[in-house]
Amino acid sequence: MARVISDECLSCGTCEAECPVGAISQGDGKYVIDADTCIDCGACEGACPAGAISEA
User: Fold this and answer.
1) In terms of C-beta density within 10 A (0-12 exposed, 13-18 middle, 19 or more buried), how is residue 36 classed?
2) What Rg do the C-alpha atoms of the chain give, in angstroms?
C-alpha cells in the first residue's frame, strides 16, 4: 500500500530526494506520492521533517 502526504507538508522536497523509485513530485501546494509507483519502502516517511507522510 502506498504512503500518503498530509496537508502538514512543508513543500521542502526532502521526501522527493529520498524516494528510490521517483514516486514523489511537487503537487498543488504540497508534494504528492504516485500510488502506482510507490514501493512502500518508507524512506520518505523517515526523511520528512514535518512528519507529514504516513501509510495510506
Assistant:
1) exposed
2) 9
Question: What is the pTM (predicted TM-score) of this model?
Answer: 0.92
Tell me, what amino acid is at 15?
Answer: C
Half-sphere exposure at residue 17, Cβ-oriented, CA atoms within 13 angstroms = 6
The DSSP bridge partners found for residue 54 are 4
CB 37 within 8 A of CB 25: no
Q: Which amino acid is at 50?
A: A
The tens-digit pLDDT sequence of the chain (56 residues) is: 789 999 999 999 999 999 999 999 999 999 999 999 999 999 999 999 999 999 98
Cα–Cα distance between 28 and 41 in angstroms, integer?
Answer: 24
3-state class of 7 per DSSP? coil
